[in-house]
Amino acid sequence: MKTRPGARAAQYAALFCYLVFLAFPLLWLLSTAFKSPAELGSLHPTWIPRHPTLANFRQAFDEQPLLRAGLNSLVAALGAALVAVLLATPLAYVVARRRGPLSRAVSGWVVVSQAFPFVLVIIPLFLVLKHLRLIDSLSGLVMVYVVWALPFALWMLVGHVRTVPVELEEAAAVDGAGRLRTLVSVTAPLLAPGIVATGLFAFVTAWNEFFFALVLLKSPHKQTLPVVLTHFIGAEGVADLGPLAAAAFLATVPSLVVFALVQGRITGGMLTGAVKS
Fold first, then answer.
1. Widest CA span of the chain, in angstroms?
2. Would you say 152 and 143 are in contact if contact means Cβ atoms under 8 Å apart?
3. Does residue 233 contact residue 244 with C-beta atoms inside 8 Å?
């Protein structure tokens, strides 16, 4: 059935409105980061700064250790993403290929784990990490991020494993390939988009996480970027808007870069034509 011109125009209009809705916060943040103090205090705000300045960026770096905090966030996010993917991939394969009580138990664990709010689990986590002497440690923070991201990562990868035709693995076994060789040479390349998407999810979640980092990290030199951004808000709740916008914009750049680098990998159809019908 052909789509009517009016319906297609309405679809494009809705899509355009949705894109504007998504892009507005980032564009306004960028505009604010380049505005002078006089423009920030104006009663008639403008989209484009009349007198663009880099003073907000210089002030942000002078007031807070953004580079060190960014490095801490990068270490925590990359560590959490790597460990979560390494743990979730083989477990997802077992759950997807061997249906039974284990698969149902893991599925139930995923659902239940996502239902617990942060506040409910922070005290047990704090006590466990204190017993392990991992409080105020990036290693302890990475462990928490892995535990929090693992259920959803497992759920994502189970769905991707089930899209890989079993006939490919059976054909490899007929050709003499062992289980390990089949997993490495046949299944793993086909799971690449799912693994990349899962790693991206774990990375972005850890990069943007605030609550656990605030509670578990006490030393100023170990704090992550989201926690340091709160230092631009004074004791009376008044925000230093220009430097805050500049620092917040810089904090969004890594996520945008990661998405730009891997979006083609995620959307690529690697299974197209893998099996002849």
1. 75
2. no
3. yes
